[in-house]
Amino acid sequence: MAKPNSSSKESFDPLRDSYRETVTEIPAVVESLERGRTALLVVDLQYLDAAPGYGVFAHLPKGQVPKEAPEFYYFDQLEQIVLPNVRRLQDTFRSNGLEVIHTRIQSLTKDGRDRGPQHKRLGLYAPPGSKEAEFLPEIAPQGDEIIINKTASGVFSSTNLSYVLRNLGITGLFVAGVYSNECVSTAIRDACDLGFYTTLIEDGCTTVTPELQKATIQTMKDRYARVMSTNEAIEEINQVVPT
């Protein structure tokens, strides 16, 4: 008799329960939301890294990305799933009086000399006033929503975001944006280390391949963040936040 193929089964995670009980599923995560101390953090949804024909994707024609292009997965996910979901989340946070905070890659100087070493090596360049520094119109900030400019992957390590959140009384973050496996996951790891209760919106973020997306969700889940869908997040917010 042939032995079962163990590779087809999900491996047992011996640490999952301890992380759920002490980090990701503790009552304080929901209590932060109940007290109005949870903010939505929208990461880097800007022309530099999320629009064909600009910045990282300057080699692509502006507008619709051809299906045969390697970048099609990323932009299809953005247009069909991520941007509509992020806007729904923003509207829900706004209607419940909760903070919506935006991060973007933008240098302090026109020539970008203040950029982090990695961004210089990668050629990531979004000076003030440039098209690359603009937010995508679908999810652009409204009113006096806070914008945090950064020149590195990690928003906490390269900006005063932690100081701003503490001043606002924020203890929890729902996180969405791009790229899941880079700036989004770095923000979540750092936020968790700094004591913030983090929730990753799995259909509110994406990256350049489905494999990287899946791996990121699996890595964040049951270690650094709760993982929820947009529908689940909106339902929780509407049920928990006092009207």
Automatic annotation (TrEMBL):
Q: Name one GO molecular function term.
A: hydrolase activity
Query: What Pfam families does the entry give?
Result: Isochorismatase
Keywords in alphabetical order: Hydrolase
Superkingdom, natural source: Bacteria
InterPro entries referenced in this protein's UniProt entry, alphabetically: Isochorismatase-like_dom (IPR000868), Isochorismatase-like_hydrls (IPR050272), Isochorismatase-like_sf (IPR036380)
The Isochorismatase-like domain covers 80-232
Under the heading CDD domains, the entry gives: cysteine_hydrolases
Q: What is this protein called?
A: Isochorismatase hydrolase
Q: Which organism is it from?
A: Nitrosococcus halophilus (strain Nc4)
